[in-house]
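Field reference: sequence -> structure
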Amino acid sequence: MLGGFLEALHAQAPGTTCSCRVPFPLPPLRDRFPAVEWLPYEAGNLEPCLRRADAWLGLGGSPFQQAQSAWFIDHLTAEAAACDRMGKPMFYLGVGVQGAAEARGPAVQRLVAQAEGIWTRDPASAESLASLAPRRPVVAASDLAHLWFRAHPPRPAVAGRLNLTPNFDFGPWPGRDALLAAVDALGVEDRVWLVQEDRELPGAERILYSRLPPAERARWRLLAPDVPGAPLTVALDRWTGAARTVSARYHAALLGAWAGSAVVVIATNEKLRGVAEELRAPAIAPEAPTAVVLKALATAQAGPRRPPVALAEQAAAAVAACLAAIRG
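Structure field:
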């Protein structure tokens, strides 16, 4: 997502600079995205950054989600207060809403009301945020990662291979055995357990893999493409293409579509239901039985598999509109 934005920014507004405060190790970020001035997440950094800025930009992701913690809402509230004090306009670009309920809280309503412009990554998110009556219309666009995949096409799909990227956000996977039975029924031998989130979080790829029965685990090749600090092109080159992709990760589903894979989305939330609709890919519930999984895989296999170029064009148009709004 950030890579796609920086590609568009370089093309549409060369010479523009960005700064970002993060509570993460800085060297890998500085190595991967040297165009951004990365700063430690300290209160003393906020106002100096804003003083030098034309605008505050919330870029990508699901900034209003509170399923696991209210930390990010508290963070945004503090940023909004500083922007208000210093007269800096706030914009959101390529953002999404994971569930309609998260948009109902008063803190989110205040944040949306303060924004000078919001461009979402999907129509459902635009609809949820538009109901909060912001000062400017909320525009439905698409995820900024499409810009990266258009500029850097992923490896093409490999016949006979299935990529699986499971994630259940700290929860269990009730349909695990049913899905594995469906893969068995298809006779797939080339099975890749693809890790998008490399941290060992509960309900995420690595923990789920470690909890497979030993005989089942031996049938899957664990692949973690990301190399911290390396250019994104390195991770993309290590991300193997597959004829079939089953994903509970948003960007793994997008990458599969750009690779020409037959994509099935495990829809654990509205964000994933939205990407399935956007990609015209079948969606299954986390607890889907084997017959439902097989039907979804057959539907995906029968459908058209072309890179979603139109979504990249929507994202580019959103970047252009946001930059125009910042310029005033």
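Note: The domain at 154-306 is CATH 3.40.50 (Rossmann fold).
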